[in-house]
Amino acid sequence: MRLFWSLAATLMSEHAAVVEGTIMNGRCLRLGGKFLALVDYRRSGLVVKLSKDRVEALVASGVGRPFAPAGRIFKDWVSVPTPDRRRWLSLLREAV
After folding, report:
1. Which of 30, 32, 70, 93 is deepest in the core (most CB within 10 A)?
2. End-to-end Cα, the chain, rounded Å
3. What is the pTM of this model?
4. What is the DSSP letter of 44?
5. DSSP state letter for 63
6. Mind listing the pLDDT tens digit of every residue in the chain (96 residues)?
7. What is d(CA 96, CA 93) in angstroms, rounded to the nearest whole number?
8. Alpha-carbon 31 to chain mean position
9. CA distances from 61 to 2, 56, 65, 75, 88 (A)
10. Between the CA of residue 3 and those of 26, 48, 54, 60, 71, what are the distances in Å?
């Protein structure tokens, strides 16, 4: 979680529209009022909203996993469970 919030601070300093918010009873990042990313929802690591094609590519490569809270897959969201500063920051920037 520390890694995520450190990266979140970097992202918020780069983009005034990225702000802290809430989702599913936890903290997240939002962009223009919409969900952008969260960390460690039920040990999911980084969860970030990207295009459906990008999510599919990350899942196919083994980097990401489908994000499916309560069993329903969110097609535009991917879980990246392994903490990796460079990768997570890159995905967060891509999401913006």
Report:
1. 30
2. 20
3. 0.93
4. -
5. S
6. 899 999 999 999 999 999 999 998 889 999 999 999 999 877 889 999 999 999 999 999 999 999 998 889 999 999 999 999 999 999 999 999
7. 5
8. 12
9. 26, 9, 10, 16, 15
10. 16, 14, 23, 25, 27
